[in-house]
Specification:
With 403 residues, this protein is of the alpha/beta class. It contains 15 helices and 12 strands. The strands form 2 sheets. It has a 7-stranded parallel β-sheet with strand order 3-2-1-4-5-6-7, with helices on both faces. The termini are far apart.
Length: 403
Amino acid sequence: MKRITRLPRKVYHYYYAKRVIFDAWKVRFKREQRLHILTIKRNYAQFFASPFKHKPSFLIGPTNSANQGTLWSKELSALGFLSQSLRITSESSNIWFASDLTLTRDEWIKFEKRQELADLVATSKDVVLFESLRPLFRLLNARDGRNQILEDFELLDLMGKKYGVVFHGSDIRDTEAHAKRSSFSPFHKESEELTKLQERTAANQALLPLLREKKIPIFVTTQDLLLDVPDAHWLPVTIDFERFHQVALESPIFPNPDEKLRVLFLPSRSWLKSAEVIEPVLLKLRDEGLISYHSYLGAGQSLEHSEVPAAMAQADLVIDQFLGVIGVFPIEALAAGRLVMSYVPAEAGEVPIINVTPETLESEIRRVAATRPHPRAGVEYAKQWHDGRESVLALAEVFGFKL
């Protein structure tokens, strides 16, 4: 803007600031108006095509944590509620899980890509599930000190879309409360990892009052998180049941009575999964000749998720963690017909898992090695609660659609 030199400097700066604000408002108005029109066009098209049988369509992202977005989308789509998972990642490729839509961070920071996402929602989606309160669009890209996801909420309100928030665990867990509840919580010892985790969860916890005020549905994937967010809805984790159940059919446990007890311990994050407590016990029992155990904690020892079923097929007993979380890995092991050991707090409900603590882990492994008990109800539990059906039912109840 050409400066009017005869205006006093303070008046000029005031006028210039107002002009910048007005120009930004015009740009935002045009973007929002366009998305609003696209949404109206889609709604009319849907109504005239099928006025009484429309099933809502979902977008779930942007983390696809533990492949949950993809598995929920698969189950939703199988029932006619077309859904897509989205992952925005700093990695050039994802060796763990495949999302329906994937954007690198470098791609996403370009406004055109974020506009495309907003257009996708406006023209083809009815419900958006935000994972871990991570933003998807940020079309305004304001730097006013607010959490960036609030821009996305306002945009979806404008488009008349439904939306909710889902937490997976470390993104909302109150580590201080957890440490008070459990003497063997991994959150007693200070570390750089814990500090980063607490900073992240504190930012999300600070938004909970606003989510409640706006009546935005809140979901958690494991029941222990209901202690931290008691008004949340349980959205059960989903596994690829058929894939893991095939392990149970083809490779039953204890194939040779004279063989050592085969143990699998596969922590995703060593410090969080109490590896410093569990690993020494397993090494001790291996050195005694009681069990067969291969450590995956060394450099280059990690497994891709596609290799996990084969690893379970070579195990009789799967060890999980002392966090008190019944997550994806132990459920997959149950579906695979394995015996599973983990800490099972009362809030986790009735789960067919051998409940252990740091004090009882060794004795329980010795008991299993001596008695060779066969698992009971594990496969049935995994199928009943975690094959995807219960997750869709939870979404249907909250968002008010019929199966």
